[in-house]
Amino acid sequence: MPEPSPLVVPPLPLPILSLGVTGHRANNSDFVAHEDRIAAVMEQIFTAIAAATDSGAGTARVRLHSLLADGTDQLAAHGALSRGWELVAPLPFGRALNQAINAHPASPADARLLLAGKPARAAETATRAGAIAALAAQARVFELADADAAIAALYLAMVDAPTDVAAAQRYASAASRRVALAGRVMIEQSDLMIAVWDGASRDAVGGTGHTLASALVAGASVVLIDARHPEHWRLVCDLEALDQPVDQPPDPDDRNAQLLAAIAAALHPADEGAAPLALAPSAWRATSSPLFHAYRRVEALFGGGGRPWRSLKMVHETPEAIASGSGAPVLQALTALPGADPAWPRAIGRAVLQRFAWADGISTRFSDQYRGGMVANFMMSGLAVMAGMAYLPTAGPEWKHLFALAEFLLLGAIVLTTAMAKRDHWHDHWFETRRAAEYLRHAPFLLALGVSRPPGRWPKGGFGDRAGWPEYHARHALRDVGLPPATIGQAWLRAVLDGLLIPHLAGQRDYHRSKAKRLDTVHHRLDRVSIVAFQLAVVAVAFWLLMWLGGWLGVVPAVLAEKSAKLFTFLGVMFPTVGGAVAGIRYFGDFDRFAAISRISAEKLDGVHRRACLLRAAPDHALDYGALSDLAHAADDVVVSEIESWQAVFAGKHFTVPV
Length: 659
Known about the structure:
Blueprint: E1 16-23, H1 29-33, H2 35-53, E2 54-55, E3 58-59, E4 61-65, H3 72-82, E5 86-91, H4 95-102, H5 108-115, H6 123-137, E6 140-144, H7 148-160, H8 165-189, E7 192-197, H9 208-217, E8 221-226, E9 234-236, H10 252-267, H11 274-278, H12 294-302, H13 328-335, H14 343-389, H15 391-394, H16 400-423, H17 426-441, H18 443-448, H19 469-481, E10 486-488, H20 490-553, H21 558-589, H22 591-617, H23 625-650
Parallel strand pairs: 1-4, 1-7, 4-5, 5-6, 6-10, 7-8
Antiparallel strand pairs: 2-3, 8-9
């Protein structure tokens, strides 16, 4: 018999510091006047970043995102490449159109040559185009080319009629929207933005001021370099800070400390040691343990669906098996994306799906232990009460020690289970690993669109002292993959919509609908059991009282009440105990609130799914990157909202003895 392959343990993601850059172009008067000083300041900032990411605490990769426009973008790109940093270019257009627009051709003929991928005739235009092409050749390029045909037509109409104001406005409006989309991609991918700005205006969509303001609204920290006084750069974290007067230059020590603190926060969570503990190989189990199936058994017994005593054993999918197992459809859809780099889906399989399988398996184990253990505690507490009194109708006082021993063992099991739960952090580890797994579960379609939750918009804390690492883990796992080196056209968008987004939305919606129905059923049936147990207690006590009254009145033999007193005393205790234990399980499980959370999530997902199907049926011109990325963000928001809701329910329900 062949030996099983060794378990693949996904490594923790290595930290990546992602930078973004925005700033004035080479035609801005302030930039031109102070370009050397701006370059010197940017070099100082890059030197500080390099030192912070190559410290004794561990080396981190640095990645710079730049739109490669002349001026600030290219200045920063050259600085990053000189240090060996990774350069990523989220371009607002396809390469040829982007090069034609940003080379500022002096004639319509040169514009058409550049659009055709040919060199321009004018030397200055050719030089500018060559500078963009040279940087693009050294970068990972993410081209938003889905609107190129329409933008190119507007662009040529403008260059053909330079005095036509309306043509210029039509082009500027459409092009600015594309630049803003590329800027959004850059912001979402970046921990820290570097901006060179003269402070003049934030109104031009896609311009420096607009991009800078968008970054601050998204929660990013911005290193703001004043184009007029570069040496007075400062770290800005709030949009309102842009409007505050700066009376004197920032203190160099303070701003350097703020910069280092921002870098440290991006690279190292406050609970950095919690992830290795929660995701350690010792936390993994190949299968679920029957000892902790109590919660899922309650769902099976009271949730409907038939076969309540079926086997509940779960075999956890291993990281090395997910590519050919549950993750196979996703990887196939990613591989089928037109023009996709074959290495990119493999990177998702390694960095995202394998880590999802690992976190999901561990989370399922801790979920069983925490919820199953607590349900078992409620059951054992009821059994302990009944065991302590069962000698009354069955044996007599001379055998009480045996029943007391049974009661003691049950109480001891409760104490032992509770101690183990607290020692091994079942509650914390379940919370943490489930969050990490859910973030990774829906990541593939986000990655395929270059969509990410901005660093400032990830949940922070709120779930206990050990709550920061799952967001960090997921964010850097996604950073490990990064933007796809791809040309995003209509075919790519349709493939993502049909092969990734719509199936994911439908699957998650149906899961939450089924879960809501099942949990509602569990809640109502447990409630019914509690009520019936209470009613039986009333009936038992009332029946004995009637027998006693009948004996006192001489209607029935008085000995009946005397001989049955112990039995009915036991029944009068047993039925309320059973009802109390079931009510405790119902309270602890919060089945009704979890059903409500799943029902709301299903409704939200159904709304996003409906919009996605409408978008799929729309003509090609309606399916653009902006519309599809908005749907991806909406789906991501539903996931995060659902995580926050269910964890808010269980956040205060720590493992304890059932009293």
